[in-house]
Fold this protein.
Amino acid sequence: MEPITRLLHAGDGADPAAHPAAAPIYQTAVFTFPNLDAIAGYYERGEGYLYSRNGNPSVHDLERAAADLEGCEDAVATGSGMAALVIGMLAVARGGGHVIGCGDLYGGTHALLAQAESIGFTASIVASADPDAVAAAMTPDTRLIVTELITNPKMRVNDVAALADLAHGRRARLLVDATFATPYHCRPAELGADLVMQSATKFYGGHNDVTAGVVCGRRALIEPARELSVLLGTTLAPFEAWLCLRGMKTLALRMRYQSAQAQAIAEALLKEPRVESVDYPGLPHHPDHALAQRILRGGFGPMLAFTVSGGAEGADRFLRGLKLIRFEPSLGGVTTTVSHAATTSHRLVAPEERARRGIGDGLIRLSVGCEDLTDILADLRHALAN
Ligand SMILES: Cc1ncc(COP(=O)(O)O)c(C=O)c1O
């Protein structure tokens, strides 16, 4: 069966006695034991559950489904995407290892790497994800390269296979944040990534009602990540895991529809006189279009960015002119939303660095949802006329 078919049935039969059609939520902090042999069974034979910070059936349903979707052996679910990222980094590089973050990175990732030393590893940030530029920054202590598959907010597409070859040639690992692409469009583990991370708050959950993260990979890497997650308490709660898995069941449907809408909107925005530029890997002029065609399947994702004329004032007038689409500093839901990177996700990135990365004050990031295309376009045009 295809992973999407398995996903639709994930969590089924969790309670064989009751035969529920939908998986129950194991909303419990702790589990009971009839005797000492049962406790020994947990600790010595890996039987059952002890305490929900260590593991919970609802969370394990999500972890199994995520690992399966990403084509990985195992996964750890965490209380946010940032928790998944930091757990993945620490699992490989704690104890003074060197991490390189490369390319256009989410502002939170950038800020985390900038503070790496205070949490037990060292880090360098390399502006480009070009393997030669990354190779030049590697040191004998480099244990991990971190990159985004489709970057936030400039929608660059990074060459995961080339970065994996580089990392492996120097006994390092590659962690890929694939939040914007999702496994529907690309499974970075198949291209050589050792760890794949998702902010499940976004497309995995898909409804802007849950904060969660997952990091997936080979068991030998996920086991230390899980151990850290248990010790640091970054565990995901059962209800959040259940919501996330319910959202994931429509991931393929949503991605197929939302990505097709994003392609049409990107093409339409190119023709708008008040739009200075459009960043979308599905457009032929995009600098990574050829690579995107090679590594993404079924479309180029629901995220795009465009720059309106008039800088910050133009962006503000545009945002005030929207009637249907809301300004929400997140992404990945079934409703179309916009964000303004310079004052939200990338606020902590120094202004010179933002300028170098092309994140101008007029840049609007659009997360395309499931509304009718004509309504989305009408709202965008109305706001542009503002
Ligand atoms: C690409 C990317 N990675 C990671 C994160 C962090 O995820 P979370 O907010 O779930 O911690 C975000 C959040 O916006 C993101 O856009």
